[in-house]
């Protein structure tokens, strides 16, 4: 004999043959379960089996409130101890009704990340999410990588402060390649787009010169100091004429 002991938002505490179960409210309605109703063992076993489906369906739908991949959902359900047959049925249903759609996921990901991440990084991250390589490549091949690189350079170059033109170019190249964009394409586009990009390096070189000078003027003779500072400033990307001018002006 069944006894309903307490109802919650999604399930009801039910006692059957002195054992307590959490029965999904949808199952309560489906089988018209009520206090005092009798079920055979076989009938009850079918109810419990069906209850697993409705329970994991509820967990799955809740997880699908945000966009996730088929692999991510499958992993989630299995970690929650869902039987594999239930997982497969749920995934089939979700894909049928477009709750799960890896192709849409890839397109949405590319739309939101196309400037922040390059193709190599995108490919790595999506494969980690269980998306098929063929599907990823299919969508990546539709992109013009150069447009995303140009957009990044144009939006970022003018915001980098207190750096020489060479340092700015090197920073942009490093950032873009780290984000997974093609190195050769990055290198060419940075050099091309920043060809006429001008930076007032006078204050920057003066600041760098003073910093190096203060650290080493007591330990090095003038000629050695000049050579040392010249090397350091050149490594930082300053123009050789500007380097010679500030050294000659400050070290006799």
Q: Classify the fold: give the CATH topology of the largest domain.
A: Arc Repressor Mutant, subunit A
Kindly state the percentage of residues in helix.
55-70%
Please state the overall shape, judged from the principal axes of the Cα atoms: elongated
Return residue spans where pLDDT drops below 50 for at least 5 consecutive residues.
Answer: none
Structure, briefly:
Helices cover 63% and strands 7% of the residues.
Could you walk me through the main structural features you see in this protein, from its secondary elements to its overall organization?
The chain folds into four domains: 81 residues, Arc Repressor Mutant, subunit A (Orthogonal Bundle); 39 residues, no CATH class; 47 residues, no CATH class; 49 residues. It has a three-stranded antiparallel beta sheet with strand order 1-2-3. It is elongated and about 105 Å long. Helices cover 63% and strands 7% of the residues. By secondary structure, the chain is mainly alpha-helical.
Which features characterize this protein?
about 250 residues, 4 domains, 13 helices, three-stranded antiparallel beta sheet, about 5% strand, mainly alpha, elongated, about 65% helix, Arc Repressor Mutant, subunit A
What is the secondary structure topology, with strand pairs?
Elements: E1 2-7, E2 11-16, E3 19-24, H1 25-30, H2 41-63, H3 70-79, H4 84-96, H5 102-113, H6 119-128, H7 133-140, H8 145-156, H9 165-178, H10 183-193, H11 202-216, H12 222-235, H13 240-250
Antiparallel strand pairs: 1-2, 2-3
Helix pairs in contact: 3-4, 5-7, 6-7, 8-10, 9-10, 11-12, 11-13, 12-13
């Amino acid at each position: 004999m069944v006894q309903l002991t307490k109802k919650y938002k999604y399930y009801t505490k039910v006692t059957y043959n002195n054992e307590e179960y959490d029965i999904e409210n949808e199952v309560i309605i489906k089988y018209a379960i009520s206090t005092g109703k009798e079920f055979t063992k076989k009938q009850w076993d079918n109810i419990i089996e069906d209850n697993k489906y409705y329970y994991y369906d509820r967990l799955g739908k809740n997880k699908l409130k945000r966009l996730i991949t088929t692999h991510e959902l499958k992993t989630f359900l299995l970690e929650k101890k869902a039987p594999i047959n239930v997982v497969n049925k749920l995934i089939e249903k979700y894909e049928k009704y477009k709750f799960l759609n890896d192709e849409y996921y890839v397109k949405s990901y590319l739309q939101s990340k196309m400037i922040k991440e390059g193709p190599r990084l995108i490919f790595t991250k999506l494969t980690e999410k269980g998306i098929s390589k063929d599907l990823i490549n299919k969508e990546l091949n539709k992109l013009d990588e150069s447009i995303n690189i140009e957009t990044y350079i144009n939006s970022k170059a003018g915001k980098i402060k207190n750096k020489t033109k060479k340092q700015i170019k090197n920073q942009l190249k490093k950032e873009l390649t780290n984000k997974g964009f093609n190195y050769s394409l990055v290198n060419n586009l940075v050099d091309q787009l920043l060809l006429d990009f001008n930076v007032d390096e006078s204050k920057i070189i003066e600041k760098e010169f003073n910093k190096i000078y203060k650290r080493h003027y007591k330990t090095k003779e003038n000629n050695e100091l000049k050579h040392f500072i010249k090397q350091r400033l050149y490594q930082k990307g300053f123009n050789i004429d500007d380097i010679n001018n500030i050294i000659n002006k400050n070290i006799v």
